[in-house]
Amino acid sequence: MAPPDSRSAARERGSATDVAGVVVLSGCVVWSLVSAAGREARPEGVLLAVFAVAAGYACGRICGTLLPVAAPGAAALAALGLAIASRQGVPGANPGAPTQPGHTGAAAALLVLAAGAACCAAAAARPPVLRLALRLLALAVASTALALGWVTGFAAAIGVLLCSLAAARMRWRTLALAGLAVATGLVVAISWGVAEDSLPQGLTVSLEGQLTQNRVALWQDAVALAKENPVRGVGPDRFGTLSTTAQQSLGSDGKPHSASLQQAAEQGVVGVALLGAVFGWLLYSLWRSPRSTPVVLSAGATLTALAFLASVGNALSFTPVTAGAGLLAGLATARMAGEGSTRAQGHPARQRHADSRVR
Fold first, then answer.
1. What pLDDT, on the 0 to 100 scale, is given for residue 296?
2. What is the pLDDT at residue 357?
3. Do residues 115 and 142 lie in contact, with contact meaning Cβ atoms separated by under 8 Å?
4. Cα(305)–Cα(279) distance, rounded to whole angstroms?
5. C-alpha distances in angstroms, 166 versus 119, 120, 209?
6. Of 43, 110, 278, 357, which is least packed with CB atoms within 10 Å of its CB?
């Protein structure tokens, strides 16, 4: 059992993380209202997304403390069931869009969250048989994505599983989380490069073939709107009414299918900064988490895969996805009952040096 001063230090670290989260999420709420002021904008979607992340995070912290293995395992099964049951319509979609074009990305995101939750449960489990069963559940999730024809979801889920297996042998979380942050930034930069047509010609043509010309045109419209209104953007939920491509696309959901580009178009550079701050806060919470490094890195890999999907789709427009992301982060940062402040389990020497490993 950890000494009282260690428990006190851990509580202070948790409080600092929570305060940072409150500040960042409050900033998202306030700025969405500022960017909507004086316009026919609808900030309700942003407010709902922020509430979903906060509620999921709080629920994850509670459930992760009480049921560190069962809670993420149940979350994995719930996300898998929701993804399968909602193949024809994910809750939170735009009912006015006949073809509901964002559903595939949202379902893939749910499968990624399911795989990540299963990996977190496996990393927290101690019996080898249970750990193997949970790894097989993550593999089953990836196989489900492939069986349903969601190649992107399959690749992302397999990536999460492989990262989780690698994390089981890692001691240092700082470098790994930094690598995940850099990888996310690179994907976002590439999406902006495609929209700006600033990448090498061969790479641009290859990416356009994968993304489709319609999506690239949506991204270009988003960049154009962001340049016209660089600070406040055009207002939340106004991209669909101002984008020529969205208006001319059959069954358009009015989204540019890129979280960062949508933020830039609708809420300006401040909105983009706040979106990045939310992701940074989640990674910071994982870095300060009292849970073991394999649990932390499994969750970090999952959130990174979700960020990849959000960079080329509109997965974050669906409430189950944003709530699931917050839930997973909460589960991976919850303090296990009786765990104290240690970030390592097992040998006392690992417990004594846990703090030094994450700095």
1. 97
2. 43
3. yes
4. 12
5. 11, 13, 32
6. 357
Mean pLDDT within 279-300: 96
Q: What is the pLDDT of residues 68-89, one digit of tens each?
A: 999 999 999 999 999 888 755 4
Counting other chains too, the contacts that 1-5 makes at CB distance below 8 Å and 24 or more residues apart are 1/338, 1/340, 2/340, 2/341, 2/342, 2/351
CA distances, 95 to each of 225, 238, 252 (Å): 25, 17, 11
Task: Report whether 320 contacts 102 (CB < 8 A).
Answer: no
Round to whole Å and give the CA distance between 113 and 37.
35
Phi, psi angles (nearest 5°) of residue 96: -85, -10
pLDDT at 351: 37
Q: State both tokens at 70.
A: 């069962």
Closest to 188 in 3D by CA, of 46, 298, 304: 304
Handedness of CA 102, 107, 108, 109 (dihedral sign): positive
Distances (CA, A) of 262 to 181, 229, 254, 258, 327: 20, 13, 10, 6, 24
69 contacts 125 by C-beta, under 8 angstroms: yes
Q: What pLDDT is recorded for position 104?
A: 61
Which long-range contacts does 138-142 make (Cβ < 8 Å, 24+ apart)? Answer: 138/76, 138/114, 138/164, 140/80, 141/76, 141/80, 141/111, 141/114, 141/115, 142/111, 142/115
Residues 255, 42 contacting (CB under 8 angstroms): no
Residue 24 has pLDDT above 90, yes or no: yes
- The predicted-structure confidence for 204-241, as pLDDT tens digits, reads as follows 788 877 888 889 999 999 999 999 999 999 999 999 99
Structure tokens at 179: 């690598």
Neighbours of 280 (CB within 10 A): 14
Q: Which pLDDT band holds residue 138 (cuts at 50, 70, 90)?
A: very high
Length of the chain: 359
Distance (Å, rounded) from C-alpha 85 to C-alpha 309?
20
Task: Spell out the residues 6+ positions from residue 256 whose beta carbon is closer than 8 angstroms to its own.
Answer: 218, 219, 221, 222, 239, 243, 246, 262, 265, 314
| Of residues 84, 122, 97, 52, the one with CA closest to residue 325 | 52
Q: Are 115 and 157 in contact (CB under 8 A)?
A: yes
